[in-house]
């Protein structure tokens, strides 16, 4: 007979197997530091999208939350693109693979022209490439960039969404994360009590609308962002209230903050700095910014004398 926790451990991996095979972020576009980079074979470029009539100079990397005339921009990181013939085709994503669609899925479509909504003629554009398309319908799309350089053809594929297309796979993904973290809690707290604590934030029961709680063996942290709700691309600060296991304020601790998006395999886009405040147990985090929607982790490493503990605060934008 399996124990209850044994059953949970087996069930925990099922949602992730269903919705999150190991892939790079949205095909050909990946986030590196604070920029989006598109890889067209070995040719690389900074990639961004704008909807100037609706959102001004705001840049989008993988998904566009609003409809309107969209500007696609590639700023070359490889000189070979300056002399390459480049064309951009945008098609409706009818592959059934969502954000996990790849070139092979597009090649399997019976009629590419039938699902094409825009196809910019191939041109040589030194230094930077731009293209325009006006989106008047929400939905899932795929961008296909082709470059011909030195007599060879290279292709990049990037699925993206426009507007509100529903919750998609996120409920499954979040459910899988919760179950995996419960499994991790079981092993670290029950089987290996001396191991570093990394407890998942109970999203369903925060202390307040904009305060997040995370508990460890030695420390407890209440984290409150300066903006509510949390949104992408806004620089802001957080206030941390640090207490010990008995609820007493902890002053003079050294707190290192790191983190990122595990599903996208990248860290925070900035380097936040934690400083102590005059009020006992209170600390301030400056330089916080999230540049993409999705599941994030903030990793707090707390040191006080001989005590050291690692806490993980998870949130979803």
The count of β-strands is 19
Cα distance, first to last residue?
Answer: 40 Å
Output the CATH class name of the largest domain.
Mainly Beta
Name given to the CATH architecture of the largest domain: Sandwich
Walk me through this protein's architecture.
- The protein is of the alpha+beta class and 317 residues long.
- It folds into two domains: 21-162, Sandwich (Immunoglobulin-like); 196-316, Domain of unknown function DUF4426 (Immunoglobulin-like, Sandwich).
- It is built from five helices and 19 strands.
- A five-stranded antiparallel beta sheet has the order 1-2-3-4-8. Strands 5, 6, 7, 9 and 10 form a five-stranded antiparallel beta sheet that branches.
- A hairpin with a 2-residue loop joins β1 and β2.
